[in-house]
Specification:
Length: about 550
């Protein structure tokens, strides 16, 4: 890293909100194939383990440290074989998985069929309380290891069977032709024996089979990852490693980037969007991504779930002037949402199915809210973390829009939460009293992933606890279609249920954006807006 000018050091000294100052001097390797780059990061909500990580910050690390059966092409999003040599089936229900030879974890242990089946059984078992457990619900025997109530009656899923050192079969509860394309998601990653024999030690320093290994990790501070020279995959790292630095304010990260104290920022704050092109020139990217921001209602609270409240929820959606907010705050790096998926899906499922409910119409908003019985308690409180993403700015803007539409100055207020981790803990413990932000970054580029995890009864990320039998049936029908292309119509029919009941308000689609220092070349974002760290070179 280039040495900072005195003014830059002063700027860092003033950054009291920075959990770990990045002004600690340059990394050991200044450039070349062994150069170390520094990148902004946010504290993960949970310990970094595949079946328990379902948010962006932890996912960044898993994407560097692990490789699964499949990996999504960073440019096209196509699910390509990685550790898998082949995944075959005769009936779209029982799949035979064969692994490529030569794969190993960075501690030297070979990657075998058991590395996958043991990891999946662990992730599915209810006693292990893993956030991503529902991703294994399609496998036979999941209901025995993860019953809806009572104690489990089995230790492993009967649908998984090891047939050789590098082969296993997975039998699903019903035909699911698109199932192999979901296997690039991090819940399906393999695990070494150390994960099971020394779980606490492994969590302190996770060991994977990807192009990087973790050198050190200090929660709320940062993580040092270094290229693993024993990696034999096709995507070896082109740099010596990545130092992830925790920031609690994206503006501070941007200041450090401009001062030469940070190499990469993948969350450009809204306050800097007017200046970022003049500041960085061609060292800035802004591209469509598989990301949508919504406001989710806590349907587990009676006041939001009572009959008639669908009109209130729909009315609130029509009280939000998305066009004005995205233009003024985000300088058109966001696009007003008109469905619950993403335009980045293209012909794979996107269609403007929200209709009038996503169009700003103050008169209709007032009428619907009145017809539905009014706001619970006469007031609305929006909640989000405010440490990244300029969330305070848009919350204030949404409340101003709602207040103006309803003609009441204090109808809408905000409840900012200081950190992402605290915000997520409140969400996952179902302690929200009003609508809260949900930023959904797709796990894989299928329309199913925008709908089933978020809105199906018991879905892995259904944090509003929305439940609708018609929606569930349509999703199940779609999953069973022999041709995944034919399933799109069923998923869109399920979206129409969301349009009628409005368990979440679509706000806007989010582009991926990043800025970087002159030390870096080859910077690009994948379809999920995450930097492709292994492609970056340090000059």
């Amino acid at each position: 890293m280039r040495k900072a000018a005195p003014a830059a050091w002063a700027a860092c000294a003033l950054a009291a909100v920075l959990a770990l100052a990045s002004c600690t001097g340059p990394p050991a390797a200044a450039g070349g194939p062994d150069g170390i780059l520094t990148s902004s990061w946010g504290d993960p909500q949970n310990p970094i383990e595949p079946a328990n990580t379902n948010e962006v910050q932890g996912g960044k690390v898993l994407d560097m440290v692990f490789r699964g059966l499949k990996r999504y092409d960073p440019r096209t999003g196509e699910a390509q074989d990685m550790v898998a040599q082949s995944i075959t089936t005769a009936d779209a229900r029982t799949f035979t998985v064969t692994l490529k030879p030569g794969w190993a974890f960075s501690d030297g242990e070979p990657v075998t069929a058991r590395s996958f089946t043991d990891a999946w059984n662990y992730g599915a078992h209810v006693d292990n309380t893993q956030n991503n457990a529902p991703f294994f619900a399609d496998i036979e025997g999941y209901d025995q290891v993860h019953p809806e109530s009572g104690k489990p009656t089995a230790k492993t899923m009967r649908g998984l069977r090891v047939t050789g050192e590098r082969t296993f079969t997975a039998t699903l509860t019903a035909p699911y032709p698109a199932w192999p394309d979901t296997l690039g998601y991090q819940a399906f990653l393999p695990l070494p024996r150390a994960f099971f024999t020394d779980h606490d030690g492994w969590l302190d320093k996770p060991v994977g089979n990807g192009p990087y290994r973790i050198e050190s990790y200090a929660k709320s501070s940062g993580m040092k990852l270094r290229r693993w020279d024993g990696y034999r995959g096709p995507d070896r790292a082109r740099n010596g490693g990545v130092d992830l630095v925790v920031y609690t304010d994206s503006n501070t990260a941007y200041t450090d980037l401009m001062a030469g104290n940070l190499d990469l920022v993948d969350d450009i704050p809204a306050t800097q969007l007017k200046f970022v092109k003049s500041d960085l020139g061609d060292r800035y990217t802004n591209q469509p991504a598989l990301i949508i921001q919504t406001l989710v209602f806590p349907m587990y609270r009676k006041e939001w779930a009572r009959p008639g409240m669908e009109k209130v929820r729909r009315g609130l959606s029509m009280a939000i002037d998305r066009e004005q907010i995205t233009r003024r705050i985000y300088q058109r790096t966001r696009t007003p949402a008109d469905d619950w998926t993403s335009p980045a899906l293209g012909d794979g499922g996107y269609r403007a199915l929200c209709g009038d409910a996503c169009r700003y119409d103050p008169a209709a908003a007032r009428r619907l809210i009145a017809e539905g019985g009014g706001l619970p308690g006469g007031r609305l409180t929006l909640t989000s973390n405010v440490d990244t993403g300029s969330h305070r700015a848009w919350m204030d803007a949404v409340c101003n829009s709602v207040n103006n539409a309803l003609g009441k100055r204090t109808a809408c207020t905000v409840d900012p939460i200081g950190t992402f981790a605290d915000f997520r803990n409140r969400i996952t413990s179902y302690r929200m009293s009003g609508p809260f932000r949900s930023g959904w970054q797709a796990d894989y580029p299928l329309i199913q992933n925008f709908l089933e995890p978020l809105y199906r009864s018991g879905g892995s990320s259904n944090h509003g606890k929305f439940s609708d039998k018609a929606f569930d049936t349509l999703v199940d029908t779609a999953n069973a279609r022999p041709d995944p292309a034919d399933a799109v119509g069923d998923f869109q029919a399920a979206e129409r249920v969301l349009a009628a009941r409005m368990p979440a308000i679509p706000l806007w689609y989010q582009n991926g954006s990043a800025g970087w220092s002159k030390r870096l070349t080859g910077v690009a974002l994948n379809q999920f807006s995450v930097p492709v760290y292994d492609r970056i070179t340090v000059v």
